[in-house]
Amino acid sequence: MDSVRSPEWPVAPLGGVAANSAAARYGMSPGTGPIVGRAGPPPTAPPPYRPSSGTGSAPSAGKPSAPPIPVKILVAGGFGVGKTTTVGAISEIAPLTTEAEMTSAGIGVDDPGARSTKTTTTVAMDFGCVTIDRSLKLYLFGTPGQTRFGFMWDDLARGALGALVVVDSARLDDCYPAIDFFERAGLPFVVGVNAFDGRLALELGEIRWALAIGDHVPLVQFDARDRLSVRDALLVVLDRALDRATRDRRA
């Protein structure tokens, strides 16, 4: 994990195209042509993802219960896709946020989308936690979405077992750097499409094609504002991480 490099986002000039957009990454002309995904999936993809059906064992009577195992999960994605909302919706403690007011200096650089009413932005990270059961506790770290904070991703990813990449279906190009980062890191991740206003701009099959992700990557729809919906998405991340750990142990 220490050798993984942060996303190499170019710095966008003031008023220019966002540095992590498809136009900046692939030399496209903004606003023209159909949705174009990434260059393609990794050359060698793991087998398709299949949810496990195993059941855990109850603790033996008379033995003192051990403290829950801490599991670090990242919540990543582009700017303004709902990462802070995701962490806040599920955290059983008051989430730690590092929100700052957006100013005119970010015009043309930080673009939350036309539908967004966002007035603040994460400048370091978000943190929350949730207890799954008596044996497992998730610690959630939300990454900053702005391009200028990409250097922090290496430190935040250290020790993580999996990641939830939050996606806005109307701005798919903003999530390409996150997907590229976790593919290079070899870290299990799940793509969670945040249903803004309960609707998606594209079908899930179209989103999978545009993102050029293989069948081994789970793609789910969820609502970042709803606790149960976020819980279900995180359980898929946990199941994906456990599936990877099981395959590595058998290898």
From TrEMBL:
UniProt feature, compositional bias: Pro residues: 40-50
The keyword Metal-binding is annotated on this UniProt entry: no
Alphabetic keyword roster: GTP-binding, Hydrolase, Nucleotide-binding
InterPro entries registered for this protein in UniProt: Gliding_Motility_GTPase, Gpn, P-loop_NTPase
SUPFAM superfamilies: P-loop containing nucleoside triphosphate hydrolases (SSF52540)
Keyword GTP-binding (UniProt): yes
Skewed-composition ranges (Low complexity): 51-64
Region (Disordered) location: 24-65
Parts forming coiled coils: none
Pfam families: ATP_bind_1
Family: Belongs to the GPN-loop GTPase family.
Name of the featured protein: ATP/GTP-binding protein
